[in-house]
Amino acid sequence: MRRYAALSATAVLVAAVVGPSNAQAVDSVLLPDLRQAPVGCPGGFSGDPARCADWDVCVVADPDAPNGECLGRGEPGRAARLRFTTSADNIGDGPLLIYGSRGSAAEPTMTARQAFQSAVDGSIPGSYAAAQHRAPATLYYEPAPAHTHWHLLGFEHFQLRTPAGDAVVVDRKTGFCLGDRYEVDDELARRPDDRTTPEGRLAGYLRLNRCGHHAPEALEVAEGISVGYGDDYKHTVDFQWLDLTGVPSGTYDVVNVVNSDRTLVEKSYDNNASSVAITLRWPGGAERAPAVITAPPLVRVVRSCPGQERCARRG
């Protein structure tokens, strides 16, 4: 049986809980808590975020390439990109669990709904039919050569902003395939250490989850993040960048936000953003990029501000 068919392909979980629709229902389920990790840090990093080095500046020949080869100094390029790793942790009480489904392969997208673990008996819905949530999201099959799997759209967004908070550049990334890619360092009571429990079996599935890899015909997909784990996209992955080409020299914030529209129900939204303040300087003291870029702009991280949408000091 293919792994993308349903969560029950690898573990039979008890279908019991549906999505919360009021305060009483929310009290009956264990909610996830998504925390945006420091910008440019590897997944699971617990040290000084100012020392993180999972980012670079990459000059490419093709401005439209999702992941163009970085050119060497002196080679003519047409775009400069700030690439950085982005990671989201689940430090809540229950897993983030998304079920996607569509009626037929003729439909280009799946409707994605959030499911929840019961706070009463620990059970987890085992199929899309048992998962309900007031605000459906969307799953889209990404056909790019490096992906070819189903992405949850809008899970994370990143921008380059002025110190006043105005967006200068926005991301071009479409979505994310969610799974347990790394373990977070926090002490969390509900981390699924026992693989025989429903949440433990779910974690075993999510650890290997590839979101319907090479399966554009799939009618159902399950993905998510267990308590105590996170999902990261390294700075070398397609569209994991912001285009600096049209940005003048100056000071900016790189802002990364998970679940920015709050489509997904969480225990708290207070930790959904992280940012770094950077200075950008084009070579030769130029205000803007030349028509042909033979050297990358100098980018320096001034400070890192985990948990905050603003980091650069105004004035």
Automatic annotation (TrEMBL):
Keywords: Signal
Signal peptide start-end: 1-25
Entry-linked Pfam families: Lysyl_oxidase (PF01186)
InterPro entries named among the record's database cross-references: Lysyl_oxidase
Keyword Signal: yes
Top-level division of the source organism's lineage: Bacteria
Protein name in the entry: Lysyl oxidase
Organism this protein belongs to: Saccharothrix longispora
